[in-house]
Design brief:
By secondary structure, the protein is α+β, with helices and mostly antiparallel strands. The chain has 15 helices and six strands.
Length: 402
């Protein structure tokens, strides 16, 4: 059996090897290389807490000092036996059952649960998976962020951190942790490249013509109706006016609504109506079921937008057309609405952007991020300005001194 002896430092002990002479009768001097650890009394939980083993008594003394500070700040939880991997599994199960809620006090959507689970399992658990939930420190989380920053986008790294924060919020509510090591970490810059790709109406028609109808409809819904990825994936034939094909209801399913404004009815322009009718006829005039059933059996039962994009990219490449993404189609839609003279508030509703209750008019995001200029807009503006100035001159009375 190994034996612990006191050192000259308060609360620091030496753990000797199994065959050390110190265990022999007569109290002989140590002839091994012991490890050192410290302990401190936690009044809140009524027990002693121990540090990890260290190579020197100085290191153990410093670790004990850190432990004392954590106890003083209340950063040590009573339930320290739960490892990160185990906590993640319990949290995912609780979120699926509706026992763990998001920061708005609402149930997590299945896609959000999957995102949290994958973020933690893929990026955090390889390093900290076997570490007790209460033993993970902010510096360890920061080190992971620093490693991910050159590899992932700023938004993706933030997503990993937010996933950890969600896990620790659940753990704190259940006294499994008293502090969140991801709460005050330094996050990377967003450095997101703003979307600038906007197609002209004629160009968009060519892009859709190069695709099969079922794939063209995906981009048509985004470009003509402003639909988001999830709204397209969850769209059902029951959400389409099958009598006239004059409108489509987006964001009906809970999983497809980003927020309340996402659920809306959008009128269909002729080009989109034609695409809807062709796909509906090709599927045998269904009255329900997904508008976009997956080509292969998938766990979610929904199409993969990434696979649609891959198919479209191949066709556009052969046709020598510049690719476009679903998000860029949404920006195109907002730009067209603005160019057509649609009021900002109606454009916001069309795009599914939330308008703050205290702010009348358009959602800021519609104008600031989604509305761009088309190539002919500058020339049109020049003509409009020249006409305005000429008309203004004609209205002014002639100068008597001229």
């Amino acid at each position: 059996m190994s034996r612990d002896t006191k050192t000259k430092y308060q609360g620091v002990f030496a753990r000797h090897k199994k065959n050390c002479r110190i265990d022999q009768p007569g109290g002989q001097r140590c002839n091994c290389q012991p490890s050192y650890w410290g302990k401190a009394w936690d009044q809140a939980h009524g027990k002693h807490l121990k540090t990890k083993m260290h190579a020197t008594p100085i290191a153990a003394r410093n670790a004990r000092a850190d432990l004392l500070r954590e106890i003083e700040l209340g950063e040590v939880a009573a339930g320290g036996g739960l490892r990160l991997t185990e906590a993640r599994e319990q949290f995912v199960r609780a979120a699926g059952e509706g026992k763990a809620l998001n920061k708005r006090g609402q149930r997590y959507k299945p896609s959000a649960i999957d995102n949290i689970e994958q973020s933690i399992r893929k990026h955090v658990e390889p390093i900290l998976g076997r570490t007790h939930l209460t033993k993970i420190r902010r510096g360890q989380v920061q080190a992971i962020i620093d490693e991910l920053t050159p590899v992932l986008s700023g938004s993706r790294v933030r997503n990993v951190v937010n996933s950890l924060r969600a896990l620790y919020a659940w753990a704190q509510d259940r006294d499994l942790a008293t502090y969140d090591p991801a709460q005050r970490v330094r996050l990377p810059a967003m450095n997101a490249t703003p979307v600038t790709r906007v197609a002209t109406p004629a160009e968009f028609t060519k892009l859709l013509s190069a695709l099969e109808d079922k794939d063209a409809l995906v981009y048509g819904l985004a470009g003509y109706a402003g639909a988001r990825n999830q709204q397209i994936r969850w769209l059902s034939w029951t959400d389409v006016d099958l009598e006239t094909f004059d409108s489509v209801e987006l964001g009906v399913e809970w999983e497809a609504a980003k927020y309340d404004a996402s659920h809306r009815v959008v009128p269909t322009i002729p080009a989109l109506k034609t695409l809807l009718q062709r796909v509906w006829l090709a599927q045998g005039r269904p009255t329900d079921g997904n508008v976009f059933p997956p080509l292969i059996k998938r766990k979610t039962g929904l199409i993969s937008i990434a696979q649609v994009q891959d198919r479209a990219d191949r066709r556009w490449g052969r046709a020598r057309l510049q690719r476009i993404t679903i998000q860029e189609c949404r920006h195109t839609c907002a730009t067209w609405l603005d160019a057509a003279g649609v009021s900002p508030r109606i454009a916001s509703q069309w795009m599914g952007h939330a308008v703050p209750k205290h702010q009348p008019g358009a959602a800021t995001i519609t104008l600031a991020r989604y509305t761009h200029t088309l190539p002919d807009d500058v020339l049109r503006a020049r003509t409009q300005l020249a006409s305005y100035l000429q008309e203004d001159e004609n209205r002014q009375p002639a100068d008597a001194g001229s």
